[in-house]
Amino acid sequence: MKFRNLLFSFITIFIISMVSNLYFNLKINTLSEELSSLKTELVELEIDKSNTHLMYIESFSTSNMEILSKSMSYRRLDIHNKNIDLVKPYKLEDEDKPIVVLGFGGG
Predict the structure, then answer these.
(1) What pTM was estimated for this model as a whole?
(2) Closest CA to 50 of 60, 39, 38, 42
(3) Hey, where are the domains in the chain?
């Protein structure tokens, strides 16, 4: 009788082990399929992002600004005024002394 109980417990443990192994393998497969679908979706979104960024760069690059401005009927203004006689914004108290920068120079 003892041998029969031992054999029965061994068989039940073996069957439970097989069933649990199958169950976990099924779960792993479903998670793997979900992961692969997420990866493909991520790749598609990255492609869309790069295409959108490329369209943005092509539309608003400096080389296309003139084309954009012509399409919106803007015209370029030429600069005629040049300020050659600019005045110093600050007047030094003593213009004879050299300017000391960061503690260096000046006698």
Answers:
(1) 0.49
(2) 42
(3) 38-73
One pLDDT digit (tens) per residue for the chain, 107 residues: 788 888 999 999 999 999 999 999 999 999 999 999 999 999 999 999 999 999 888 877 777 877 877 888 887 777 666 666 666 666 656 666 666 666 555 44
Coil, helix or strand at residue 37:
helix
CA separation for the pair 28, 36 (Å, rounded): 12
CB 97 within 8 A of CB 106: yes
> Is the sign of the CA dihedral 8, 9, 12, 17 positive or negative?
negative
Pairwise CA distance, residues 101 & 46, whole Å: 51
